[in-house]
Structures are given as C-alpha cells and as structure tokens.
Specification:
The complex is a heterodimer of chains A (about 290) and B (about 325).
Chain A (H helix, E strand, L loop, with lengths): L2 H32 L6 H19 L2 H22 L9 H23 L15 E3 L5 E3 H23 L1 H11 L1 H6 L4 H27 L5 H16 L4 H21 L4 H15 L7
Helix pairs in contact in A: 1-5, 1-6, 1-8, 1-9, 1-10, 2-3, 2-4, 2-8, 2-9, 3-8, 5-6, 5-8, 9-10, 9-11, 10-11
Chain B lengths: L5 H15 L1 H8 L4 H27 L8 H14 L8 H23 L4 H21 L9 E2 L6 E3 L2 E4 L4 H24 L1 H11 L1 H6 L4 H27 L1 E2 L6 H14 L5 H20 L4 H14 L3 H8 L5 H4 L4
Antiparallel strand pairs in B: 1-4, 2-3
Helix pairs in contact in B: 2-3, 3-7, 3-10, 3-11, 3-12, 4-5, 4-6, 4-10, 5-10, 7-8, 8-10, 11-12, 12-13, 12-14
Classes of the chains: A mainly alpha (about 290), B mainly alpha (about 325).
C-alpha cells in the first residue's frame, strides 16, 4: 500500500471516528450521569440529518441548515427528557431500554410520515466542493477535512467545558457519584435536562454535517447507534476520554477493515470490541 | 418465583385452553383468514418460546443479553444445513444435532461473555450476535445474505412408520404448542431445582451467592447454555415453519424484539415474556390492519405500557391476588 493511499484511509478513519465521537460522547455522558441506556440516541442523529436536509432545501444554505438543526435536536432532546425519561429515573434500567425502544419506533415512523422513505442526497456547498490533489489520481475532498475540523473543535470545546467550567465540574461529579451530587444541593433536574439536551444536540450536529457525505435515509440512526454503543463500551461507560479513543479506534478499524478485508469489514469492528472486552471487561477507561 | 398465585394460574390456564382450542373455533370466527391466522399464532408461540428462554438469562439470572437471536438463528440454520436439498431431514438426527451445536457454541460464547457484567455484558453479547449474523451473511455455507430454503419438512418416524406429518399446518400447530408448554414446564422445573435456586439468587445478589461459597460463573454459564439451547429449539421450529432461513434471524433486531417481549411481559416471571410475545405481536397485527404507519401507534403503545405498567403485563395478573402489600411484593 503506498503512502498516499494509506494517508487517505487514515484521514477517512479519523473523520469517521470523530463523527462517531460526537454521537458517542452524549451517549456515554447520559449513561454515566443519569444511568439511562438511551436507545433513541441514534434517532437524534437521524433528526439532525433530516432537519439539515430539509432546511438546506428550503434555505439553500447548508451552513444555516446545520446551525438550525442544532437547536432543534437540543429542544427535542430536552422535551423528551422532561416529559418521559424523567418519570423513569427510579425504575430499572430495562424499563428505560423499553421506553427508548418505543421512542425509536415513533421517531422512525415520524420520519417516514414527514419525509418519506426515499434516500436523499445533500449537496456539498459550492465553496467547499473541491478536493486536495495528492497525486495524479488521488484526491481528498475538502468537505471531509472540514467535518474532521468541526468535530475536532467540538471535541476540544467539550474537553474545555468538562475540565474547566463549573458546569463541567457538576458533570464530572455526576458521572462519578450521582447521589452525592444531589445531596450537595446541585439542581440535578436541571443538570440531567441539560446533559440530555447537549447529548441530543451533539448527535444532531453529527447527523447534519455528515449528511452531504453519508446522505440521509430511513433507519440511519440505528446503524450509528450500534457502533456508538461499541465505542462507549470499548472506552468505558461514562468516560468521555474513553469514548474519544474508542471512536477513533472503531473509525480506523472500520475503514481499514473495508479496505483490507472487504468480506469481513463489519466483522472487524465487533472483533475489536470482543477483544477489548475480554482483555479489559470494563472498557479501557472505566 | 416459587408458586404462581391462584388467580394468575387460573387466568393462564384459561388462556392456554383458548390457545389449544383455537384451531376448532378459529375457522368459525375468521373463516377467510383462518389458514393465515393459524400460521400466525404458530409463529407467535415460537417467539414466545424464545422470549421465555431469554427470560431465564435476563429476568432470572440477571444477564441482559442482546445477542440471543444468534442461537435462535443457529438452530434454524442447522435445520437448513442438515436438510438434504428437496428431501426431508430425519428429525431424530436433525433436532439433536441442531440443539447440540447450539449448546456447544453457546458454551463458548457464554464462557467468554460472563467475564463481563451489566452494560458490558449487553454489548459483548451484541458483538457475538453480530459476528454470528455476519458469519452467515458473508459465508457461502447456506446461501449467504440470500438465505436458504428448506423445501420439505423433517420426517417424524419410528422404524419407517410416520408418527406425525409436519406438513399439515394443524399438526405443526400442536407440535409447536407442545414445545411451548414443554419449554415453560422445563424452565419451571429448572428453577425449582437446587441449581435453579442458586441461579435465582445470583439474579438477586451475585456477591452474596459467592459469599455463600458458590461459584456464580459456573451457574451462570449453565443457565446461559440452557436458555440458548431452548432458543435454538425455537429457531429450529421457526425455520421448519417458514421453510426458509436468512441472516436476519440472527440480527440484533431479532434479539431486541425478544428483549422487548421479556420486559413488556414482565421480567423474571417466565409466563410474562410469553404473554409479552402475544401482546406485542397481536398489537402489531391490530395496528397493521388499521394503518400502514403502524410503527407510530406501536411505539406509543410500548411507551404507554412502560409508563403505566411498571411490572409489565405479568404485573397485572399478579395484582389479581389482592393480599396485604408485603405479600404482593413477592414478584421476584
């Protein structure tokens, strides 16, 4: 494999990994802090993608569409937490699994009712519709680099928020010991609502910016959801750092699996996960 | 769960009688759709067997598995592999061989999976399930992603005399009903045995069981293999019924659906998940007949059950026995 080809695969793997991180970080925080296994998290990814697709058609600007899909998914996430999830915090994990399963069905059918069951492409903005010329016949699209850059900036922002701000302190404390945080007089209701909304917004953002590369289609949330669960478990449940490393690992494993072992590409991701769990049953950073 | 409260037992027996007599009155109630509905109810009973087997893992031993369909699918695929093309398999060979294969595979997967706990267990079983899915999807063993047909039902004969003709939908209905009741009774017997007591205790508090001098991992592994093998039986019956297997039988959707049946029906009660299978599938049929957008009411229905019935459908039945509150808590 020559150098440029290898570089392209690494870039693709990292880009995919960063995208997975946006979705998985919310998932891991929601589980770590609230103890909720949110199966509907992939639905926010789908929601973000479809809202961006629809707004890009209406406004003609992908930037505006992505920017608007962010508050939409945050609001929907906040509403779901406030109305449904909140009632189940004291219940068994399995009840929450069932609730969020029901939500997946509602989201999927809602998507079909509003946008139909066709696959839709989303145009890359004119400004970014060009490629870096690497060799005579190898190019790398600028938009993919932009996705990586946006995800990396968001990841840095998350690190700053979690490590440096008061809100981040609550989040870290919540992930370490939920009951203690409540006992210290922190408004847990608000904290949970915000974390859920931020998680939903991040997943929506991931779906929106990836729409031009991956297109939008029914059931897109579930495939991402499963991969993000893989990421969360590899990294260690509740650990954002772990989710980051897990996401990059899975992004690379998936990309290189498709190139090197095309027949077993989907297998490679699960093989990596089984290997990590057998080595460290609680994930890399639990 | 030691004994069923009497009102719940009466309701369940009545439901079973309804099920057993269904072929008699079904043709009177739904003359046009009788053949279709008979097949449908047979299919639901097969799913109910799978749901009960999953309940042994999830509700009783506390091992939430999202890879149970791997064993369901493997049982089905074994029938497809063991059936000569255009000829019937001998059930006395095919069934034991299929169940033994499922048991052997589940022993390996189980031994690796029970090293983890909680959400990691959910995920590692998901990983193994997906590996099984891609194994049959990508290999040429039985048709790859297209699946494989089983053209002829297995024969059931002794010394050349045919005992049952499984090609008859009615006979097959009663065979599946027998397997359904048999699986329930077998699981109840397992739970009543000293082994089952330990497994139930593990579901409540694994560390205490270890403190009492038992090795929980050995008990969990045996429970895992029993549950998987019963799921394999369900898959075997399912493949025989539809005459077709495909990788979707092993997919995580199938595992997830079984888990939903268990939770919706009421975990740890065995009869609850069986009821869950019927409620979910009948609700689906009902919504499907009303609107093509049936997933929407289905999702709302599932959400409503979660919010309104904390202990699932089984909780409703167990409430029938209104005794002083401490007794009513005896659901586990």
């Amino acid at each position: 494999m020559d150098f440029w080809f290898f570089l392209i695969q690494v870039l693709n793997g990292v880009q995919y990994g960063l995208l997975l991180f946006l979705v998985a970080s919310g998932l891991t925080l929601i589980f770590g802090i609230m103890g909720i296994i949110n199966l509907a998290h992939g639905s926010f990814y789908m929601l973000g993608a479809y809202v961006a697709y629809w707004l890009a058609l209406k406004t003609g600007s992908l930037v505006a569409a992505v920017a608007l899909s962010l508050p939409v998914s945050a609001l929907v996430g906040y509403a779901i937490e406030a109305v449904l999830v909140r009632a189940l915090y004291k219940r068994d994990h399995l009840d929450q699994v069932l609730l969020t399963y029901g939500l997946i069905l509602v989201f999927n059918e809602g998507q079909k009712l509003i946008w139909g069951s066709d696959v839709h492409g989303v145009a890359v903005p004119e400004l970014l519709n060009w490629s870096f010329r690497l060799t005579d016949n190898l190019n790398y699209p600028a938009y993919r680099l932009l996705i990586s850059a946006v995800c990396a900036v968001v990841a840095l922002g998350m690190w700053w928020m979690i490590a440096k701000t008061r809100f981040g302190m609550w989040v870290r404390a919540g992930a370490a010991n939920r009951e203690m945080v409540a006992a210290l007089g922190i408004d847990v209701k608000l904290l949970f609502g915000l974390v859920f909304a931020i998680g939903a917004a991040l997943a929506g953002l991931a779906g929106a910016i990836a729409a031009p590369v991956n297109s939008v289609y029914p059931g897109m949330g579930e495939s991402v959801l499963i991969l993000c669960f893989v990421v969360v478990v590899i990294g260690g449940v509740g650990s954002v750092k772990g989710a980051f490393l897990g996401a990059i690992l899975i992004g690379l494993a998936d990309t290189f699996g498709k190139v090197l072992l095309p027949d077993f590409a989907s297998f490679s991701v699960y093989a990596v996960m089984a290997a990590v769990l057998l080595w460290k049953p609680r994930g890399l950073f639990a | 769960m030691t004994r069923l409260p009497r009102p719940a037992a009466i309701v369940l027996l009545a439901l079973l009688a309804l099920l057993a007599a269904y072929p008699l009155y079904g043709s009177l109630l739904f003359p046009e759709k009788h053949a279709f509905l008979l097949q449908k109810v047979t299919g639901i009973m097969i799913l109910a067997i799978m749901a009960m087997s999953l309940d042994l893992l999830v509700g009783i031993a506390g091992m939430v598995s999202l890879g149970h369909a791997a064993f369901f699918g493997l049982g089905g695929y074994m029938l497809a592999i063991l059936s000569p093309q255009y000829e019937a398999a001998d059930i006395w060979v095919a069934l034991p061989l299929a169940l033994a294969t499922v048991a052997a595979v589940s022993a390996v997967i189980g031994a690796l999976s029970i090293r983890t706990n909680g959400i990691s267990f959910i995920m590692i079983t998901l990983a193994f399930g997906q590996m099984g899915y891609f194994f049959f999807n990508d290999s040429r063993l039985a048709g790859g992603s297209d699946g494989a047909f089983i053209y002829v039902m297995p024969t059931v004969e002794i010394a050349g005399v045919s005992l049952l003709n499984l090609e008859s939908k009615l006979t097959f209905y009663y065979v599946v009903l027998g397997a359904f009741v048999g699986a329930y009774l077998l699981l109840r017997m397992v739970l009543a045995s000293p082994f089952g007591r330990v497994v139930q205790a593990i579901g409540v508090n694994e560390n205490r069981v270890r403190g009492l001098g038992f090795d929980p991992d050995r008990y969990k592994l045996v429970a895992f293999v029993i549950g998987a093998t019963i799921a394999g039986l369900a898959g075997f019956l399912g493949a025989a019924q539809y005459g077709f297997v495909n990788p979707a039988m092993l997919s995580w959707h199938q595992s997830g659906q079984a888990l939903v049946m268990v939770i919706l029906g009421g975990t740890g009660t065995l009869f609850g998940p069986a009821l869950g299978a019927f409620v979910l599938e009948l609700a689906r049929m009902g919504f499907e007949s009303v609107t093509e957008h049936w997933l929407l009411p289905m999702g709302l229905f599932v959400i409503a059950v979660v919010v309104l019935l904390p202990k699932g459908v089984a909780g409703l039945l167990l409430q029938l026995e209104r005794k002083p509150p401490p007794e009513a808590e005896d659901g586990a």
